[in-house]
Amino acid sequence: MRLGVDVGGTFTDLLLQDDAANKTYRAKTPSTPQDQSIGVAEGVRLICEKAGVKPSDISLVLHGTTVATNAVLEGKGARVGLLVTEGFEHTLHLAKSWTPGPLFGWIVMDKPDPLAALKDTRGIPERVDARGNVVHELDEAKAIELIDDLCGSGIEALTISLMHSYANPAHERRLRELVQERFPDMTVSLSSDILPEFREYDRAITTVMNDYVRPIMTRYLSRIEQRLKEVGVESRLHIVRSDGGLMSAEAAAQRPVHTVLSGPAGGVTATAMTARRTGINKLLAFDMGGTSTDVSVIIDGNPMISRSTDVGYFPAKVPTLDVRSVGAGGGSIAEVSELTTSLRVGPRSAGAMPGPVAYGRGGTEPTVSDANVILGYLPSRLLGGDMTLDVDGAREAVASIGKSIGLSSEDAAQGILDIANEVMLGALRVITVQRGLDPRDFGIVAFGGAGPLHANAMAQVLGCYPVVVPHNPGVLSALGFLEAEFKNEFVQTLIGSVAGMNDGKVFEHFADLRGKALEWLDEQEVETTDRGLKYTMDLRYEQQGFEVEITVPSEMIDKADGLDTVLKDFHETHERLYGVRFDLPIELVALRVVATGATPPVEYTMPEDGTTDVAEAIIETQPAYFHGEWIDTPHIDRDRLATGARIEGPAIVRQYDTTTVLLPDHYAEVDETGNLMIWPTNKGE
């Protein structure tokens, strides 16, 4: 029994996989922003009740969380102290030469305060050069004086980030010893542990961010483990990393910076699995929830990985899935601007409480979900009948918007959806057109509670087909957590011309990193047969400002020979990516070893009593608003459909965790793996 838990801004999604019986169970429960662990505990009770099992039967809990992200975005992290090399106290303030957009953007920019204040920063007398040689010995007496002053000032966590510590971490480690001797309860992070790579600002801000969210993450994990224990769950808790991998709760408490994009990672992982199962090599992941929409690109069945991301204004140099987010979701609030009397949608959201007006929890402002309700796209009862919608309240709220801009309630609702769709289309264009990719070459996977409601409209504008609606779209991120693998990355910066390096020394460093990777796999209790190791080098032409990652075959590591082959691959990869190769010396920047631990796949079994006769699956027929008129539209029970069933649009396809809107002039077919595949009726013309 494996449980995936995805906490969103509006709903907490859970998916329980019974590996023995090959069955899955779904549950959605309102999120509890005041304490997310309350919603998680309630969801565990609900899904165990649905599955007819005890919480103690669950063997593994996999959880994606936005706690770290929200702490940074809301500026509610811990008070962090910072020890740097003397003379570099303003590292976080100088940052990088970057301005937000065009001229006007930086004129009006209100630059945020660094995550560690200057008054909480101390310069330590010491210096190491880029080769790791000690230029100035650590002045321990002065260091103790500064540590006593800083740690006694009320800071909650301490970051130590010294110049070139990636090359020689001895001074950082000694400072940690001094801190622990005098302040044993102080939380301490070393930049040489969190990010042992060159580039001073990136290393400092990433480590400071780790400490900024660390006390909050530690408290949250402690609460959620306690809640799970109270409801009877006895298994270990694992957290999803930003790159889609898994880490133990203990590791997440130590390095929470690796969870800053934990939430969206599950959906991207599940989309990649969908690509492999359907054979569609190019897919766009379209995850629309109640608060935001996340989009990403899958090519050749693999998600795009970035070595850094931004959390608000602050960069975090950690491996992440390349995801773009916009503030448009089912709970996005529609309003009319007082200045321009124009209709706006989002980024303000009704969230879980009070939520859309239709939810009947006290919401008064019209949202995207309310627009879907009055247009007939959402039925009056959701979650298998557990949730009744206030249709009249939604109509009244949207009508107030229409009245202020001279539109009928139907046209106002359509306008709300059109604007929300345009915001989401902007994010899809960023990850495709702006990168030289043609969206017409891609299919689109719709998931999240609201994704299938809007995906057909997205595809119609962008021309990306098929629209793939997985069998569990509303809880697909939780499913992705179950299909994620354990993952961690071990890095060694080693800057220099390849021509002047001893090949044997390079492979010795690889061997050291491999030892650390295997030690980590032991800590995560990954079986030997499930382990994987990937070796890569970051290479660049001399004096370039960026690197290209090149894979090194594992047999090359064992032989400690073959760098010429790697250099040849670098030239070819550089030419493929940038259209040019140079006859210049090549520099090695870093070595990486990525350790992975495989987890069992989640297999879906089609219902035995399914039918290919759509008429047998019709629940009811209700009017829905398409192309400016009301059309009697069948509502179809998806769980009654078998492989090969074909639905002609318009239609509303209903299931426990979401609702799919099939537009006129489109049809949908159920494929052999249970996906709903939507195509235009004139496909191929």
UniProtKB/TrEMBL annotation:
EC assignment: 3.5.2.14
Domain Hydantoinase A/oxoprolinase as annotated: residue spans:
203-489
Q: Where is the Hydantoinase/oxoprolinase N-terminal domain?
A: 2-182
Q: Which SUPFAM superfamilies would you find in this protein's record?
A: Actin-like ATPase domain
Q: Name one GO cellular component term.
A: cytosol
Q: Name one GO biological process term.
A: glutathione metabolic process
* Record-linked InterPro entries: ACX-like_C, ATPase_NBD, Hydant_A_N, Hydantoinase_A, Oxoprolinase-like
Sequence ranges assigned to domain Acetophenone carboxylase-like C-terminal in this UniProt record: 508-672
- Does the record bear Hydrolase in its keywords? yes
Q: Which GO terms describe its molecular function?
A: 5-oxoprolinase (ATP-hydrolyzing) activity; N-methylhydantoinase (ATP-hydrolyzing) activity
Q: Which UniProt keywords apply?
A: Hydrolase
Its protein name is N-methylhydantoinase (ATP-hydrolyzing) A 2
